[in-house]
Structure formats: C-alpha cells, structure tokens
Write a structure and sequence with these properties.
Blueprint (H helix, E strand, L loop, with lengths): L2 H19 L14 H25 L9 E3 L6 E4 L2 E4 L28 H4 L8 E5 L3 H13 L2 E5 L7
Helix pairs in contact: 1-2, 1-4
C-alpha cells in the first residue's frame, strides 16, 4: 500500500472532520461538498511527482536501480542475479516490496468480489457502502477514511477463538 497515498487520504478525512465541526466554532459552511475524483487526481499526481523526485535523487547519487525478480548467487563476492544478469557490488539493497495474499473463492466464497488495500487507491468514486476485513492499522485507517468521507462502512475482524 502506498504510504504517501494513505497520508493524503488521511489528511482528506481530517479536513472533512474540520468541515463537520465548523458550526461549533461559529463558521457557517452550508453546501460544502466532497469530490472523490478531485482528491484522487490530485493525490495520484502528487505521488507521481514525488516518485520522480526520489528516482532523480537516486540517479544523481549514481545509484543504479534494477527492477525485476532477483536472487543472491553462490559467488564469493556479494552478487545478485536479476533476470539472468549478474550484479556485483560492495553494497546491495534489496527492496522486496510485497503483495497481499488473496484467498480463492473455494477457501472463502465470494473472496474474488473483494479488493486488496491497494485497490482502495484505484477506486474511481467513493463507495456508498464498504466492508473492510481485517484489524491491522491499514484496515482501521481505511475504514475511518471511508466512513469520514461519507461511505457507510463496517469493519469485520476475524477471531479464531473466544476471549
């Protein structure tokens, strides 16, 4: 999940809370509307711009970025092999990334109807209703954001045993 994307969406929800509280501080703000498309477009452009800046800074530092699936080799020097080509250097940084495990429909009927937290950032519009499954910080953060912005949201937590 993109942490920058999450921060932008969290800040969006904070602004929604401020708007909600304006009347308590004497501000009259009738007709304030939220536009998901606007924040999505601005957030995506912001993240692209920052990613370009980060990548340019890495290049200016004369650091090679090699994208692909890699593995360490048995060579005596620190060596990795990426897509058939070997790279040796005194310092090698591996940024593994990650991918969520999505159960099959045979394991959990209807699982294919859901999306991962990454899919949240691809949403083209604010869902009228949403169900978030999980109890990690990303799940709690996303359900809070969606709820604050106007999606009727529920958080489901799986528990294997009764406490």
């Amino acid at each position: 999940t993109c942490s920058l994307c999450g921060q932008v969406m969290w800040n969006t929800a904070v602004h929604a809370e401020f708007v909600h509280d304006h009347a308590d501080y004497g501000f009259e703000t009738p007709g304030v509307k939220f536009n998901w498309r606007t924040i999505k477009d601005k957030r995506d452009a912001y993240v692209r711009r920052l990613n370009d800046i980060y990548e340019n800074n890495v290049k200016k530092a004369h650091i090679d970025i090699i994208r692909g699936y890699g593995k360490f080799t048995a060579d005596p020097e620190p060596t990795i092999e990426v897509e058939g080509k070997k790279y040796t250097a005194p310092h090698i940084l591996i940024a593994t990334g990650g991918r969520p495990a999505v159960p099959s429909d045979s394991e959990i009927p209807g699982a294919s109807l859901g999306m991962t937290s990454d899919g949240f950032f691809d949403l083209e519009e604010l869902p009228r209703r949403s169900v978030i499954v999980g109890a990690g910080y990303i799940a709690v953060e996303i359900v809070g954001i969606l709820s604050t912005l106007g999606s009727k949201s529920s958080l489901l937590i799986r528990q294997d045993k009764v406490v």
